[in-house]
């Protein structure tokens, strides 16, 4: 079963793609451990958006009134870009048919007193189905919201399966536009939530300093040129979101340019380099506080923020020496591919009739399948539903590749 996962997060920087081959190793009768899902990552790419699409995606993420025609236009353009990207990847690998899972771009994650009222992802899947002939799973968050959940963080399912055997309190951390954390460990139900901004406010300042609407603080150079302003940091830390209890989720509806301006307006402006140094530390400090809250001793980190050495140094310092911080790559899963792999996993689970969400993490009343299916060039032909969720997920080791035909489903 070849699955293509497509992801674009709140940073709207690139379309992340993963081509994944899943197989199940049946545990056999009497096994105490259960089935194992084995994953081979055949390809992964970060395909940057063309400048005009990137600019329009970012416009949709800032809270302002925009014409509905822009939403419809970007919906199609992202759908077409996704279709072209999938076609290219499938062609490279000589794969004719696959399940495509497309997250799309979240343009609204509507919250009302902690409850999600609606979540909207765009990137019309019809283009992908029509141009590639493949079935497409899309709208992967809405069902969890309809079941009373946050529709986030969906990574909790992947983390929960990847770290099923964790021997110590472990956190999987993703530093995208927003930072999200999944905490797993022996004898506890997994929990997961967004801790607050990761790169969202850093990106705002990088764009202000450089005048480039798509700039990032590459290698942390801008933050390294400033000093943390403690009164500004203290003011930022009074944000009520940090004190809300999980389950909770957030997005650029809260942590955006206007948000930062409101805090700066009540504060003598320390200068842009000091502001970017301060919001970089804000991320490190809020993430570390949540890890300490759960007594985490190991953190496995992914996402674009791992490429910012200033942020990573700040995080290491805030965590202290008793917490091990390592990239998810140590598991054989490249950090830049993790969220696209997550999409592929949600697709595999839904395709096989299995739940794709973890209610203790999203806050939903029950575990639901994810998304809706668009047929490709032939009718949907789903396999017989599986009755049990695999016990854990692991990456296929290179040494196993020769025997990969055995035991596959
Ligand atoms: N070389 C780098 N140096 C500093 N920051 C980086 C670098 N590469 C990526 N980033 C940060 O990571 C963000 C993208 O991370 P990503 O995990 O793709 O987030 P999202 O899931 O929100 O799209 C960029 O907006 C930027 O802030
Ligand atoms: Mg991204």
What does this structure look like?
The structure is a single chain. By secondary structure, the chain is of the alpha/beta class. It has 2 domains: 2-151 and 335-400, Nucleotidyltransferase, domain 5 (2-Layer Sandwich), CATH 3.30.420.40; 157-331, Nucleotidyltransferase, domain 5. The chain has helices at 51-61, 68-92, 125-132, 142-146, 155-162, 200-210, 221-224, 230-237, 257-265, 272-293, 309-319, 338-351, 359-362; strands spanning 2-7, 14-25, 36-48, 99-102, 105-112, 115-122, 136-138, 170-175, 178-184, 191-197, 298-302, 324-327, 372-374, 392-395. The chain has a 7-stranded mixed β-sheet with strand order 13-7-4-1-2-3-14. Strands 10-9-8-11-12 form a 5-stranded mixed β-sheet, sandwiched between helices. Helix 8 packs across helix 10. It is globular, with a radius of gyration of 21 Å. The N and C termini lie close together (7 Å). The structure holds adenosine-5'-diphosphate and magnesium ion (MG). Magnesium ion binds next to strand 2.
Write the layout of secondary structure elements.
Elements: E1 2-7, E2 14-25, E3 36-48, H1 51-61, H2 68-92, E4 99-102, E5 105-112, E6 115-122, H3 125-132, E7 136-138, H4 142-146, H5 155-162, E8 170-175, E9 178-184, E10 191-197, H6 200-210, H7 221-224, H8 230-237, H9 257-265, H10 272-293, E11 298-302, H11 309-319, E12 324-327, H12 338-351, H13 359-362, E13 372-374, E14 392-395
Parallel strand pairs: 1-4, 3-14, 4-7, 8-11, 11-12
Antiparallel strand pairs: 1-2, 2-3, 5-6, 7-13, 8-9, 9-10
Bound molecules: adenosine-5'-diphosphate and magnesium ion (MG).
């Amino acid at each position: 079963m070849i699955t293509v996962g497509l992801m674009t997060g709140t940073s709207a920087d690139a379309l992340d793609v993963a081509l994944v081959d899943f197989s199940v190793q049946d545990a056999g009768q009497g096994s105490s451990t259960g089935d194992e899902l084995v994953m081979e990552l055949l390809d992964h790419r970060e395909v940057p958006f063309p400048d005009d699409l990137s600019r329009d995606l970012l416009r949709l993420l800032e809270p302002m009134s925009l014409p509905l025609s822009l939403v419809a236009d970007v919906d199609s353009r992202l759908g077409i870009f996704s279709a072209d990207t999938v076609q290219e990847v499938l062609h490279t690998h000589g794969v004719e048919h696959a399940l495509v899972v497309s997250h799309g771009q979240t343009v609204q994650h509507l919250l009302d007193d902690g409850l999600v009222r609606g979540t909207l992802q765009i990137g019309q899947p019809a283009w992908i189905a029509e141009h590639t002939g493949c079935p497409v799973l899309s709208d992967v968050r809405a069902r969890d919201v309809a079941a009373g959940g946050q529709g986030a963080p969906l990574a909790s399912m992947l983390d929960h399966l990847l770290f099923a055997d964790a021997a110590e309190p472990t956190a999987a951390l993703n530093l995208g536009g927003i930072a999200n954390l999944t905490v797993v460990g022996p004898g506890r139900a997994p929990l997961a939530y967004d801790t607050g901004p990761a790169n969202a406010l850093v990106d705002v300042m990088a764009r202000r300093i450089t005048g480039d609407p798509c700039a990032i603080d590459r290698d942390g150079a801008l933050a390294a040129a400033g000093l943390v302003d403690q009164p500004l940091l203290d003011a930022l830390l009074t944000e009520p979101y940090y004190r809300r209890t999980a389950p909770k989720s957030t997005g650029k509806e809260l942590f955006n340019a206007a948000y930062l301006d409101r805090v700066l307006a009540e504060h003598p402006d320390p200068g842009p380099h000091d502001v970017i140094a301060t919001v970089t530390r804000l991320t490190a400090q809020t993430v570390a506080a949540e890890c300490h809250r759960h007594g985490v001793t190991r953190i496995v980190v992914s996402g674009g923020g791992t490429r910012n050495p200033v942020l990573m140094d700040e995080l290491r310092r805030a965590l202290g020496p008793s917490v091990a911080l390592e990239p998810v790559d140590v598991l054989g899963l490249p950090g830049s591919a993790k969220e696209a792999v997550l999409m592929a996993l949600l697709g595999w689970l839904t395709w096989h009739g299995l739940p794709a969400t973890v209610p203790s993490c999203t806050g939903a009343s029950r575990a639901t399948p994810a998304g809706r299916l668009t047929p490709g060039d032939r009718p949907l032909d789903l396999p017989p539903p599986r009755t049990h969720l695999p016990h854990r997920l692991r990456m296929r080791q290179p040494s196993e590749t020769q025997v990969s035909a055995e035991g596959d489903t």
